[in-house]
Amino acid sequence: MVLARGLRKTFGKPGAEFEAVKGIDVDVRRGEAFGFLGPNGAGKSSTMRMVAAVSPVSGGELRILGMDPAVDGPAIRGRLGVCPQEDTLDVELNVRDNLYIYGRYFGIPKGEVNDRVDELLEFVQLTEKAKAKVEDLSGGMKRRLTIARSLVNRPDLLLLDEPTTGLDPQARHVLWDRLFRLKQAGVTLVITTHYMDEAEQLCDRLVVMDKGLIVAEGSPLQLIREHSTREVAELRFGVADEGDSHEALAEKVADLGDRVEVLPDRLLVYSEDGDEVVAKVHERGLTPVATLVRRSSLEDVFLRLTGRTLVD
């Protein structure tokens, strides 16, 4: 569905160029949900715009649905669905007309568009809001309407840029259910997200990008196994132990795990058995005021690969 080899994207004039994507290889297979993860400025959006055939390739090879976007852009875009990060709904139209008019842009006959609109409103659970104004919808409803609009041409490939940003947990889970059903129906999904739990829930495979490069690739479980441990013990120390700096405390427990990460308010000890770590910490006379043992997550992998420093 998507094949990239040495894909590059450069902005700016000669001599003052900025390379946003620095030669990446990507394969997206039919019927899977494929994710792009990375901090701001990693190159995710630049890559998605090239895949959407709206931004020209600066170097390397890119094929979308077997076609070259430099030559077959209109044909590619006719078979894509795009859900942008920001809702771009027409607030002057009601919910139904937002779908109907968008469908007509693809040259779909009126009767067929009407049928598709009815199907999509039911699919995203907005049938009762068909005549409502867009501005009267909740954030979750607007996102569902945006996804419905991206499906009006029955795309082979659906691109979703931060699909659940700003939604409450209930709305996110409803949206996840809709996306899972699309994947079951054979639609290939390409997703960018900042939510690690979302990537774990939705993505069959994903890549982690940083500074324009792919730094890791695999299924969520593969990445956790490769770059983290089975469990993490979080240790928070009180005033009595604060005579020792966090760095000094980390040295005292360093041999209890594969690695120890020092944060301002706690230590993270990565190991295969978090409960054993906590028990041995107490045996050494250290008394954390709070402990938490949890399984390693994709967020642990993400932060290890891209760092905890804020990226502007």
Automatic annotation (TrEMBL):
One of its GO terms (biological process) is response to antibiotic. One of its GO terms (cellular component) is plasma membrane. Residues 2-236 form the ABC transporter domain. GO terms for molecular function: ATP binding; ATP hydrolysis activity. It holds the Pfam family ABC_tran. It is found in: Cell membrane. Keywords: Antibiotic resistance, ATP-binding, Nucleotide-binding, Transport. InterPro entries: AAA+_ATPase, ABC_transporter-like_ATP-bd, ABC_transporter-like_CS, ABC_transporter_ATP-binding, P-loop_NTPase. It is a peripheral membrane protein. Belongs to the ABC transporter superfamily. This is Lipooligosaccharide transport system ATP-binding protein. It comes from Nocardioides lianchengensis.
